[in-house]
Amino acid sequence: MPFRSKRRPTTTPTAPDPSTTNDNSTEMGTRFYTENSTGSIPDSCFWVHDFQLGASMVVVQPSSGKVLLVNNTERRTWFLPRGRKDIGETLEQCALREAYEETGYRVDFLPLYLPSRAPAPPSRPDARRELMVSEPIFITSHDFGPYRHGNRVDRGGQYMIFYYAGQIPADAVREELTGMPDEEHYVGTLLELDDALSLLSRLEAHIMKIAYSHWQNTVEIEQERLSGESDRHPRSRRRARAGDSNSERRVSNVE
Question: For the region Disordered, what residue ranges are annotated (predicted)?
Answer without folding.
Answer: 1-30, 225-255
